[in-house]
Recover the amino acids of this structure.
C-alpha cells in the first residue's frame, strides 16, 4: 500500500483524527487514535470496519458495549517485572478494575455473539482472569486501605494499637483536666504537633507542667507539651505503627508476587481495552457525522451518494448552516472525471471529500454517505492539492508539481486513485496545458481512477473525447452570480471569469477591455458553455416539474383504475346474486306446482315421476352451460394418481390423528380420575356450593357434621350424606 503522510495532510486526515480524539475514554485511546493510519491488510481492514459498525449499532439498542473506561497501569506493570517490589493499594484496585471490565465485556460479547460477531471474535484471544479479582478486593478496601483481616498478624497489631490509642486518650484527658483546674493552660487548651495531642501551656507555667516540650507558638507565649503520663504510651504506639507498616508492606509484596505471572496477560488486556476504546471513539464519531459502512465492492469503484465532507459538516453545523452533499461515481466505464467551473464554486472541496472519505474508510472509519453508496479499496492513493512550493528545496510551484507528476507516472496503475487540484496550472497555459494532456493520457492508459479539477479547455475537450473519461461541473447561478455547490456529471463547466469579476466590483469598462484582448473563439466557447449550463438548469427544473405532474396524474389514474375495478367487482357480485335469486324463484315455483298436484291427487308415484323428469331436464341445462372437460388417458391416470395420493395422505393423517386422539383421551381420563380422587377426598367447608349427585339444584353448606352436611337451598334446608353430595364451587377464603 502506498498512501504517504503528504496525502493524509493534503486531505486533512489529521484534523479528522483530532475531532475523533474527543470521543475516546482514556489517554491510551486518544493516543491510539492519533496513530491511526490506512490499514494495509484487507482482512484486517474489513474486520476493523465491521467492529466499528457493530459498536455503532449497539448505540441504537438496549445492549450497549459495557466499556466505561480503564487504567493505563504503566508503573504497576513495570514493578511486576522487578523483583522484591510492591504495588500500592490504589494501583492494585486499578488492576482489579481492569480485569473486571474485561471480564464483563467478555461475558457480554459471548452472550450477544449473534449481534456482535466481529467484536466477539476479537476478544477470544484475550486471557480472562476473574479469579484474581477477589484475591485483591478481599484484602484491600474500596478506600485503598489494607483490611484488618488481610493477615492474622495485622489484625493483632491493629487491635493492640486501638487499645493503646484509647489509653493515650484517657491519659491525656486526665492531664488536661488536672492542669486546666490549676489554670496553667492557654485559652486554646490543646493542639496537635507531629500528629500528637499536646497541652497548650502558658509560658509562665512551663516548669510546673511535667512532660516533653514539642514546640512553641510564634510569639513564644504558648509552649506545647506532651504530658509525661502519655510519653511511654506514645513510644509504644510508635513501635506498633512501625510494625503495622512493615506488615502492610509484607502483604502488598505477597499480592504483587501473586500477580507477577500475569504481567503479560495484564499488558495484553490493556492493549485490547485500548483497541476497543479506539473502536468506540470511531463509532461515536460516526454517530456525530452520521457515518455508515457503505456497501463494499469487489470491483474497483467509488459510487458516492449524498456524500458529506465530515469537517465541513461539523463546522457548518456549529454555525447553523446547511451543507450540500455531493454524488459522484468512478468505475471502469468512467475512470477519470474532470471537474470544472468557477473559483470558489466547490471544486476543491468536492475533490477533498472523495479523497478524505476513501482514506477514512481504509483506516477503518465509517463515512457520512447514503446507504446506497458503494466503495472499494485502493492500493495507492495519490494527491496533488494546494500550493506546493518548496522553499527548502528551492523549487517553484510548477517544478514541485512536475516532480509530483513524475511520481504519479511511476505509481499509477489499475489499483490507484489519484486526485489533482488545478491540473496543469503553474506554467504557460498552452505549453503547460499540452504537457497536462500527455499526463492525462498516461493516467488513462494505465487504467488509474482519478478526479481532476481544471480551468484548461483542452483538458475538458480531452475528457469529452476519451471513452472512459467524463466531464463534470460545479453549478453556478448566472442571475445571482452565486455558486450552487452542486456537482453535475456529463458536461464541462464555464469558469464565469468575467461574471465573477463583475460580482467582485471590477469596473465594467475594464471587463470589456479584457474581453477584447481574448480571442473571440474563447469568449464564444465560454459563453456557449455558460449558456448550455443555464439551459441545462432550466431543463432540469422543467423535468422536475413534469415529474411532479406526472406523479400526480399517475396517482389519479391509479385511483380511477382501482375505483373502476371495485365497481366492476360489485356489478359481477350483484349479477351473480340476481341470477342465483332468479334460479331459486324458478325452482320454488316448479316445486310449489308439483306440491299442489300432489295435495289434490295424493298420487306419490305421479309426484316422483314428475320430479324425476324435472330434475333430469335441469341437469341437461346445467351440463350445456358447464360441459365436462374431456380427458385423455394420460390426464385420467394423472388425476387417478393424484386422488390415490390424496387418499394415502388422508389415511396417514387419520392414523396420526387417531394416535393423538388416544393420547389425549388417556390424558383426559387421567385428569378425570385425578379430579375424582380430589373430589372424593375433599373436606367440605361452610360456604361451599354443592349439589346432590345426579341432581341439578345447587345449595350452600351451612353446617358440616361427621358424615352429613346441612345444605341451604334458599327457601329450605336439608341434611344429606357427604357421599351423596358433590362439590360445585369452593368457598373463597
Amino acid at each position: 500500500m502506498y498512501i504517504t503522510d503528504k496525502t493524509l495532510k493534503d486531505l486533512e486526515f489529521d484534523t479528522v483524527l483530532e475531532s475523533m480524539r474527543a470521543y475516546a475514554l482514556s489517554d491510551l485511546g486518544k493516543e491510539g487514535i492519533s496513530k491511526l493510519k490506512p490499514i494495509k491488510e484487507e482482512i484486517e481492514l474489513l474486520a476493523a470496519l465491521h467492529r466499528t459498525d457493530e459498536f455503532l449499532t449497539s448505540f441504537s439498542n438496549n445492549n450497549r458495549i459495557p466499556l466505561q473506561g480503564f487504567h493505563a497501569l504503566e508503573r504497576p506493570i513495570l514493578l511486576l517485572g522487578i523483583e522484591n517490589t510492591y504495588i500500592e493499594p490504589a494501583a492494585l484496585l486499578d488492576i482489579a478494575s481492569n480485569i473486571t471490565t474485561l471480564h464483563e465485556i467478555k461475558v457480554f460479547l459471548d452472550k450477544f455473539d449473534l449481534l456482535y460477531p466481529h467484536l466477539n471474535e476479537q476478544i477470544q484471544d484475550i486471557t480472562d482472569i476473574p479469579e484474581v479479582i477477589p484475591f485483591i478486593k478481599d484484602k484491600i478496601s474500596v478506600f485503598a486501605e489494607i483490611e484488618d483481616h488481610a493477615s492474622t498478624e495485622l489484625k493483632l497489631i491493629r487491635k493492640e494499637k486501638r487499645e493503646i490509642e484509647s489509653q493515650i486518650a484517657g491519659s491525656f484527658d486526665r492531664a488536661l483536666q488536672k492542669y486546666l483546674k490549676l489554670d496553667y493552660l492557654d485559652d486554646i487548651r490543646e493542639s496537635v504537633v507531629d500528629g500528637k495531642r499536646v497541652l497548650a501551656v502558658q509560658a509562665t507555667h512551663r516548669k510546673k507542667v511535667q512532660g516533653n516540650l514539642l514546640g512553641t507558638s510564634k510569639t513564644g507565649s504558648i509552649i506545647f507539651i506532651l504530658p509525661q503520663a502519655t510519653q511511654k504510651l506514645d513510644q509504644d504506639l510508635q513501635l506498633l505503627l512501625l510494625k503495622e507498616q512493615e506488615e502492610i508492606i509484607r502483604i502488598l509484596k505477597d499480592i504483587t508476587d501473586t500477580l507477577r505471572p500475569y504481567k503479560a496477560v495484564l499488558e495484553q488486556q490493556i492493549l485490547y481495552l485500548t483497541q476497543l476504546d479506539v473502536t468506540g471513539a470511531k463509532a461515536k464519531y460516526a454517530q456525530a457525522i452520521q457515518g455508515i459502512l457503505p456497501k463494499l465492492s469487489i470491483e474497483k469503484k467509488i459510487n458516492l451518494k449524498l456524500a458529506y465532507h465530515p469537517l465541513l459538516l461539523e463546522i457548518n453545523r456549529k454555525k447553523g448552516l446547511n451543507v450540500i452533499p455531493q454524488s459522484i461515481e468512478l468505475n471502469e466505464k468512467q475512470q477519470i472525471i474532470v471537474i470544472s467551473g468557477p473559483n470558489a464554486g466547490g471544486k476543491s472541496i468536492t475533490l477533498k471529500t472523495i479523497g478524505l472519505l476513501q482514506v477514512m474508510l481504509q483506516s477503518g472509519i465509517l463515512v457520512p454517505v447514503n446507504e446506497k453508496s458503494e466503495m472499494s479499496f485502493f492500493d495507492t492513493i495519490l494527491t496533488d492539492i494546494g500550493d506546493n512550493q518548496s522553499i527548502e528545496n528551492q523549487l517553484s510551484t510548477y517544478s514541485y508539481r512536475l516532480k509530483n507528476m513524475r511520481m504519479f507516472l511511476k505509481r499509477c496503475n489499475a489499483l490507484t486513485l489519484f486526485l489533482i487540484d488545478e491540473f496543469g496550472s503553474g506554467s504557460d497555459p498552452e505549453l503547460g496545458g499540452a504537457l497536462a494532456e500527455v499526463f492525462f493520457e498516461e493516467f488513462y492508459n494505465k487504467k488509474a481512477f482519478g478526479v481532476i479539477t481544471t480551468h484548461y479547455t483542452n483538458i475538458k475537450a480531452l475528457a469529452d473525447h476519451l471513452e472512459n473519461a467524463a466531464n463534470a461541473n460545479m453549478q453556478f447561478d448566472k442571475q445571482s452570480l452565486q455558486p450552487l455547490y452542486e456537482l453535475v456529471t456529463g458536461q464541462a463547466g464555464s469558469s464565469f471569469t468575467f461574471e465573477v469579476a463583475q460580482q467582485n466590483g471590477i469596473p465594467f469598462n475594464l471587463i470589456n477591455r479584457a474581453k477584447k484582448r481574448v480571442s473571440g473563439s474563447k469568449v464564444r466557447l465560454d459563453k456557449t458553455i455558460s449558456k448550455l449550463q443555464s439551459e441545462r438548469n432550466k431543463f432540469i427544473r422543467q423535468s422536475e416539474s413534469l415529474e411532479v405532474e406526472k406523479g400526480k396524474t399517475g396517482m389519479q389514474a391509479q385511483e380511477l383504475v382501482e375505483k373502476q375495478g371495485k365497481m366492476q367487482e360489485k356489478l359481477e357480485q350483484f349479477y351473480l346474486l340476481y341470477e342465483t335469486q332468479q334460479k331459486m324463484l324458478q325452482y320454488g315455483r316448479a316445486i310449489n306446482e308439483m306440491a299442489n298436484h300432489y295435495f289434490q291427487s295424493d298420487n306419490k308415484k305421479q309426484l316422483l315421476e314428475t320430479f324425476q323428469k324435472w330434475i333430469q331436464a335441469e341437469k341437461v341445462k346445467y351440463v350445456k352451460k358447464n360441459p365436462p372437460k374431456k380427458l385423455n388417458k394420460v390426464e385420467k391416470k394423472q388425476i387417478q394418481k393424484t386422488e390415490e395420493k390424496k387418499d394415502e395422505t388422508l389415511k396417514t393423517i387419520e392414523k396420526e390423528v387417531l394416535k393423538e386422539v388416544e393420547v389425549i383421551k388417556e390424558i383426559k381420563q387421567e385428569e378425570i380420575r385425578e379430579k375424582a380422587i380430589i373430589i372424593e377426598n375433599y373436606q367440605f367447608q361452610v360456604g361451599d356450593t354443592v349439589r346432590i349427585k345426579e341432581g341439578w339444584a345447587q345449595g350452600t353448606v351451612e353446617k358440616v357434621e361427621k358424615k352429613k352436611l346441612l345444605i341451604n337451598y334458599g327457601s329450605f334446608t336439608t341434611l344429606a350424606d357427604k357421599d351423596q353430595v358433590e362439590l360445585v364451587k369452593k368457598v373463597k377464603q
About this structure: The first strand starts at residue 185 and ends at 193. Confidence is low (pLDDT under 50) at residues 389-394.
